[in-house]
Amino acid sequence: xxxxxxxxxxxxxxxxxxxxxxxxxxxxxxxxxxxxxxxxxxxxxxxxxxxxxxxxxxxxxxxxxxxxxxxxxxxxxxxxxxxxxxxxxxxxxxxxxxxxxxxxxxxxxxxxxxxxxxxxxxxxxxxxxxxxxxxxxxxxxxxxxxxxxxxxxxxxxxxxxxxxxxxxxxxxxxxxxxxxxxxxxxxxxxxxxxxxxxxxxxxxxxxxxxxxxxxxxxxxxxxxxxxxxxxxxxxxxxxxxxxxxxxxxxxxxxxxxxxxxxxxxxxxxxxxxxxxxxxxxxxxxxxxxxxxxxxxxx
Length: 298
Fold this sequence. Notes:
Strand order of the largest sheet: 4-1-5-12-6
Order of helices and strands: HHHEEEHEHEHEEEHEHEHEEHH
Helix content: 25-40%
């Protein structure tokens, strides 16, 4: 009986590896190359060194976060550059998978489909109960886009949009922000915010363009990129919040956390990290330290 149970367990493990191996990795186009640190490579988990690469998941939706280039098959963007530079500093390849949606990221980490995930993921204490984090981008600047023809007066607080319909991406912290703002509207005797949830940012942007919703709420850097590309759009609102940073996510207690944290810290120290952000015109979001888990919230 004991032998049979062991064989069954091994079969599950091998089946998992086979499924992972059958899944095609997505080609990437990084913009910066950095030197390896042999001392850091020696700190990697033995199974990762044996495998020869780190598996990273991302949900490519809009630049400059993560997106497909014109060939519709090559990934580029801030997340690609940051994690690839971390891998180069560790002396190991990073291979990428498309998560197929933001909501698939945490389940994919928990089941071991990815070693790490980068997709504009805000660290939150609720999410920290399921996955671990290392912060790498200041997410305190958010924006709302609208059609120029709507002539919306620029605003800096969500209290300015009580009673209006606003879109946000599924599974994002922007939904939580809108819910909190809506409750504040009602407490002040105003109408609540009508929150429209979209599967991703591109769907929400298109909804604004087509007139289905008057505004869409999301990361400032991504929406600014969209406004620069889509001429009928404008940045209607700019809101500053005290969110924890956008972070690299890991399975709980992952042995990769310490090596990745050390590699990111070295990239911050030598200026490589800042070069990556400046290349995407988002240097304003640079962090000064690679904080991990609870220290992110301190």
